[in-house]
Specification:
The protein has about 475 residues and is an alpha/beta fold. It contains 17 helices and ten strands. It has two domains: about 170 residues, no CATH class; about 260 residues, EAL domain (TIM Barrel). It is elongated.
Length: about 475
């Protein structure tokens, strides 16, 4: 299932490395702006220049609003607000107040250079026109003002007696700003490299865990499970997949992590075949794009199946639409080889990517998965309900099983049953649990338990963040 566009957090709710960097940048920018404006606003108020003091007061209030937005988790809005305020204030200051003279050069424009560096990181998750446009606007405006001594004659012009000591203050603030930004970047890189080494160690020292979330039929019978990845860190406790999976992708460890999950899943299936109560279960394993595109992917899968001596039909590989984005012919060829050996395929996140009906007729699929984002809102949204109904009808027309993920209420389950959905997965039935607990449920003839409100770490929101192998 694909996570919504919200910042990733670890299991304790702490922000991820990327969000920590953005938080620090926003607090640095808004904090320095507030201190700068408090100082100058006090100075101008004491000298009776109330117009400029009022502008400083507005900037202080907007900096406080930025801080409030960051604390509320509204990072994108905070970044846009801070960038807009800083550009407007610093450009006005440099162009209309800090007009250069023969004795004292302009200095306020230096802030545009420092804040341009900060904007590169604040805008990283924005659309391209903002991601590149905002930093370039800061830097180009700085270049224009640094290359010209021109300035309009206005009532806001400051005398040289104010501008001369102000130049020292301005440049001092810019030095602090640039040094702070570089420190945040260096700290982020060091943390990321350290976590990459920790994740590599986790692979070798058995810190990764395989959790299972039951997949249930219309009659409530457990049909199988989906393999989900967890990292039990010796100091930090349970680390969210939303943090370490992107880390694995960036550090090139994703194929190794995916191969570990595949090996563990096959070993689990080998153990299941020894008990009649678990021998018929299927186990679904997510496959990331970086793992699937490895030249030896097919050979690795077949090797894991052969080593465990399992029935290949009990293994199901879940592909997200991102896997299909590059070379569809190569994808189909790999799937065909594995399908010929009996391995099944499910298309995850259906309808959330570059969905095209043309590839469905080419892919040797066994199952379509209704994405949890449609399931979550379908009772209130006719559009989401129509999409879910269309996926069910399409799957049945193509002879594919349809499973809905993210089912959290009896009403959702009943609505899906009326549509003709055949299988379900979600917190209504069970949160992801350790493999031993899942097996005890099946062998004891018990249905999976619904999660308790007091249970640690997980909750319905985790279902949206539980991004497994590619997104876990």
């Amino acid at each position: 299932m694909q996570a919504p566009p919200v910042p990733a957090t670890d299991s304790a709710g702490a922000p991820s490395l990327h969000e920590r960097r953005v938080h620090r940048m926003l607090l640095l920018g808004s904090g320095l702006t507030a201190v700068f404006c408090v100082g100058w606003g006090t100075f101008f108020a004491l000298h009776g220049n109330w117009a400029i003091a009022a502008l400083d007061l507005v900037c202080i209030l907007l900096s406080a609003l930025t801080f409030h937005l960051v604390q509320r988790g509204r990072v994108r809005q905070a970044a846009r607000l801070l960038s807009g305020v800083l550009y407007g204030v610093m450009t006005f200051n440099a162009a209309y107040m800090d007009v250069p003279s023969l004795g004292v050069p302009r200095s306020a424009h230096a802030f545009l250079l420092g804040y341009g560096v900060v904007a590169v990181l604040l805008m990283r998750d924005e659309p391209p026109w903002l991601r590149h446009g905002v930093p370039l606007l800061f830097l180009c405006t700085y270049a224009v003002l640094a290359s010209s001594n021109a300035g309009p004659q206005t009532a806001f012009m400051l005398p040289d007696s104010v501008r001369a000591p102000g130049a020292w203050i301005n440049h001092g603030f810019v030095v602090v700003l640039v040094y702070g930004a570089l420190w945040i970047i260096q700290t982020d890189v060091a943390q990321r490299n350290g976590q990459g080494r920790e994740l590599e160690r986790a692979l070798l020292q058995g810190e990764l865990l395989l959790y299972l979330q039951p997949q249930v039929g219309e009659d409530g019978r457990i049909l199988g499970a989906e393999a989900l990845l967890r990292w039990q860190h010796p100091q930090r406790g349970m680390v969210s997949p939303g943090e370490f999976i992107p880390l694995a992708e960036r550090s090139g460890l994703m194929p190794a992590v995916g191969d570990w999950v595949l090996r563990e899943a096959c070993m689990r299936l080998a153990a299941w075949r020894l008990d009649a109560r678990t021998a018929g279960l299927q186990l679904a394993v997510n496959v990331s794009a970086s793992q699937f595109t490895q030249p030896d992917f097919v050979a690795r899968v077949l090797a894991r199946v052969g080593e465990a001596g399992i029935d290949p039909s009990r293994l199901k590989l879940e592909l997200t639409e991102s896997v299909l984005a590059d070379d569809l012919d190569a994808v189909v060829a790999k799937m065909a080889v594995l399908k010929a050996h009996g391995i099944g395929f499910s298309l995850d996140d259906f309808g959330t990517g570059f969905s095209s009906l043309s590839y469905l007729r080419r892919l040797p699929l066994d199952q379509l998965k209704i994405d949890q984002s449609f399931v979550r809102n379908m009772l209130a949204s006719p559009n989401d309900a129509a999409i879910a109904q269309t996926v069910v009808a399409l799957g049945r027309t193509l002879g594919l099983q349809v499973i809905a993920e993210g089912v959290e209420t009896d009403e959702q389950r009943s609505f899906l049953c009326e549509m003709g959905c055949e299988a379900f997965q979600g917190y209504l039935f069970s949160r992801p649990v350790p493999a031993a607990e899942f097996e005890a449920q099946v062998r004891g003839g018990c249905q999976p338990r619904a999660p308790q409100a007091s249970a640690p770490v997980a909750g319905p929101a985790e279902g949206a963040r539980d991004r497994r192998i590619e997104h876990t």
